[in-house]
Amino acid sequence: QVQLVESGGGLVQFGGSLRLSCAASGSRISIYTMGWFRQVPGKQREVVARIASGSSANYADSVKGRFTISRDNAKNTVYLQMNSLKPEDTAVYYCNADYPFAPGVRYWGQGTQVTVSS
User: Fold this and answer.
1) What tens digit of pLDDT does each residue of 22-66 get?
2) In whole numbers, what is the pLDDT of the chain averaged over residues?
3) Distance of CA 25 to the CA centre of its chain
């Protein structure tokens, strides 16, 4: 079992920056593929960025060049640096951990709200 706790969300102006953190406990996350997803009311949760155990990362087209996902396995923590924020980035952001050896074994945090004002 992996417990995930997100932090760092808040209210920011258009063009501003935020750094989200996802602290994991219960298991070391070094072998997990970690990800950030977001969801707005009435819409499906969508992937924002994912990072594999070897630190290769991929991003949604909407955030490429603005967001950076990283991981610190020693701290059991994953980050999402968000720059040049836009109002359309407003959402609840969720951290996720995928166990690579058992498809479907997935853990979620409780989410953190990010609001970008225009």
Assistant:
1) 999 999 999 999 999 999 999 999 999 999 998 899 999 999 999
2) 96
3) 16
Exposed / middle / buried, residue 33 (Cβ in 10 Å: 0-12, 13-18, 19+): middle
The phi, psi pair for 88, rounded to 5°, reads -70, -5
CB burial of 57-81 (b: ≥16 within 10 Å; e: otherwise) equals bebeeebeeebbbebebeebbbbbe
**Tokens encoding 80:** 């999402």
Other Cβ atoms within 10 Å of 51 Cβ, number: 22
% the chain with pLDDT above 70: 100
Give residue 110's identity as a one-letter amino acid code: Q
Cβ(13)–Cβ(116) below 8 Å: yes
Q: Which tokens belong to 24?
A: 């994991």
